[in-house]
C-alpha cells in the first residue's frame, strides 16, 4: 500500500498548540474528534474549517495505512470515509473498523450513488451501522447537519448516572411519535418512547440508558409506560379501541409481565385494546420456550404484538410463523431512500407483501422524504412513522397535534414536522 505524501494526519486544530490545556481534560474543554479518510483530503480545507469552528477536532487521513497508523479511539466521535481510496476502498476501511471494534459513528461519502449503496450494504453485512451516506459534492454545512444529530459526549454519559435515581427523581418521561394510517389519512396510533432529562446534562439519547438497564429496571420502565397509557388514554375522548399505543417489551420479562398485565386487564377491560407490544426482530432469536408460551398466553388474553426493527436481523418465514404478531415495523435503515434504490424497493415491497400474506399490518419507520412516502403508499404500506409526519413530542403537544391533523381536510404529510419540546 503506497502512502501519499500530500498530507499527513493532522492532530492539532487551527490556532492551537495542543489539543487540551494543561492538566487532565474536563468534559467542558474536551473536543470530539472527527476522522476524515479521503485521498483528496487536501481539497477539503473548507470542511476542516467548518468542523473546527463548531468545536470538533479534525484528523485527515489520505489512505487506510495512514488511518491505521494514527487512529485513536479515545474521544473519537465519527469517521467520514470516501468510498474510493486509490488502491483501497471503503470496504477495506470498514473491515479495519470491524476488527478493531470501532464504536464511534460511521459516515460514507462518494460522488457515485451506486458505490455508496454497495458500501453501506457491506457495512451492514459485517455488523457495522452507517449513520448516513453523504453524496459528493457536499458542503461543510451538510456534514455539520449530519453530525448535529448526535450530541457530543452523550452516548456513554448515562453509564455515570444512577438509573434508579433517574426513575426516582422523575428524570425519565414519555414522548409520543404519531403513526399515520395511509388508508384513511388519519393518525390512529403512536409509539411511546422514553427520554431522560438530566438536570446537568440535559436530554440524553434513549440508547444511552435503555441498553444498560437490568431486567428488573426494564420491567419497572415498562410498567411506567402502561401506567402512562392508562392515565392518558383510558378516559375521555381518547378512550377508543381504534387508537393504539406501541410500547417496547423485553422478552425476558414476558413471564412476570403477563401476570401483572392480566391483573390490570381485570380492572380495565379495554387496556389490551389500546396497547401494541413491540418485540425487536433481533430479540426474537433469544426467546425461550417459556417466554414463547407466555407470548401466546398474552395473545389469548387479547394482547397485540408487533415485530420492531424488522430487516436488521436474520428472520425467515419459518421463524416468523412461530410468533403470534399482528404488525411488522420495517426498520428505517431499509426505508430511508428506498424510493430511489432498486434493491431496497424490491426488499420493502417483499416485506410488505409477506406481512399481508401473514395477516399482519406493515409499518414503515423513519420516513423522512416525500418520495419515500409516495412509494410506500403506492405499494400498499399500511402505516408510516417518521419525521415527515411528526417528531416525538410530549403528551400535551401530542393531543393538540393529532386533533389538528385529523380534523384537517388536507393531508399534512408534506408539511414540515413540528418542533417539539423533546427531541
Automatic annotation (TrEMBL):
Coiled coil: none annotated. Keywords: Phosphoprotein. Gene3D superfamilies: 3.40.50.2300, EAL domain. The modification 4-aspartylphosphate is found at residue 82. The keyword Phosphoprotein applies. SMART domains: EAL. It comes from the Bacteria. PROSITE patterns: EAL, RESPONSE_REGULATORY. Pfam families: EAL (PF00563). GO terms for molecular function: cyclic-guanylate-specific phosphodiesterase activity. InterPro entries: CheY-like_superfamily (IPR011006), Cyclic-di-GMP_PDE-like (IPR050706), EAL_dom (IPR001633), EAL_sf (IPR035919), Sig_transdc_resp-reg_receiver (IPR001789). The keyword Transferase does not apply. Residues 33-151 form the Response regulatory domain. GO terms for biological process: phosphorelay signal transduction system. Residues 156-406 form the EAL domain. This is Diguanylate phosphodiesterase.
Amino acid at each position: 500500500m503506497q502512502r501519499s505524501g500530500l498530507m499527513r494526519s493532522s492532530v492539532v486544530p487551527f490556532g492551537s498548540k495542543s489539543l487540551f490545556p494543561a492538566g487532565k481534560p474536563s468534559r467542558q474543554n474536551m473536543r470530539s474528534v472527527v476522522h476524515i479518510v479521503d485521498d483528496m483530503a487536501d481539497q477539503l480545507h473548507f470542511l476542516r474549517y467548518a468542523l473546527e469552528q463548531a468545536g470538533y477536532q479534525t484528523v485527515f487521513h489520505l489512505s487506510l495505512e495512514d488511518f491505521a497508523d494514527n487512529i485513536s479511539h479515545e474521544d473519537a466521535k465519527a469517521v467520514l470515509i470516501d468510498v474510493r481510496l486509490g488502491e483501497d476502498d471503503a470496504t477495506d476501511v470498514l473491515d479495519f473498523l470491524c476488527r478493531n471494534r470501532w464504536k464511534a459513528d460511521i459516515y460514507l461519502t462518494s460522488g457515485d450513488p451506486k458505490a455508496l449503496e454497495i458500501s453501506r450494504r457491506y457495512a451492514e453485512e459485517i455488523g457495522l451501522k452507517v449513520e448516513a451516506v453523504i453524496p459528493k459534492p457536499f458542503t461543510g454545512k451538510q456534514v455539520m447537519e449530519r453530525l448535529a444529530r448526535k450530541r457530543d459526549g452523550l452516548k456513554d454519559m448515562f453509564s455515570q448516572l444512577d438509573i434508579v435515581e433517574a426513575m426516582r427523581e422523575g428524570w425519565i418521561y414519555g414522548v409520543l411519535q404519531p403513526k399515520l394510517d395511509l388508508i384513511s389519512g388519519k393518525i390512529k396510533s403512536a409509539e411511546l418512547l422514553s427520554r431522560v432529562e438530566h438536570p446537568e446534562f440535559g436530554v440524553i439519547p434513549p440508547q444511552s440508558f435503555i441498553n444498560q438497564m437490568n431486567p428488573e429496571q426494564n420491567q419497572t420502565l415498562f410498567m411506567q409506560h402502561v401506567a402512562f397509557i392508562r392515565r392518558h388514554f383510558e378516559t375521555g375522548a381518547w378512550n377508543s379501541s381504534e387508537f393504539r399505543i406501541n410500547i417496547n417489551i423485553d422478552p425476558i420479562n414476558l413471564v412476570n409481565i403477563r401476570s401483572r398485565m392480566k391483573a390490570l386487564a381485570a380492572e380495565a377491560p379495554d387496556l389490551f385494546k389500546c396497547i401494541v407490544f413491540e418485540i425487536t426482530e433481533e430479540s426474537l432469536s433469544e426467546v425461550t420456550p417459556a417466554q414463547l408460551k407466555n407470548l401466546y398466553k398474552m395473545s389469548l388474553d387479547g394482547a397485540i404484538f408487533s415485530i420492531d426493527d424488522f430487516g436488521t436481523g436474520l428472520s425467515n418465514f419459518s421463524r416468523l410463523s412461530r410468533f403470534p404478531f399482528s404488525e411488522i415495523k420495517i426498520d428505517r435503515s431499509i426505508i430511508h431512500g428506498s424510493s430511489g434504490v432498486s434493491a431496497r424497493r424490491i426488499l420493502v415491497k417483499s416485506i410488505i407483501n409477506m406481512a399481508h400474506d401473514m395477516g399482519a399490518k406493515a409499518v414503515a419507520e423513519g420516513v423522512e422524504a416525500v418520495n419515500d412516502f409516495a412509494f410506500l403508499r403506492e405499494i400498499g404500506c399500511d402505516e408510516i412513522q417518521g419525521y415527515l409526519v411528526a417528531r416525538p413530542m410530549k403528551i400535551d403537544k401530542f393531543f393538540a397535534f393529532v386533533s389538528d391533523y385529523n380534523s384537517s381536510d388536507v393531508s399534512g404529510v408534506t408539511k414540515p414536522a413540528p418542533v417539539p419540546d423533546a427531541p
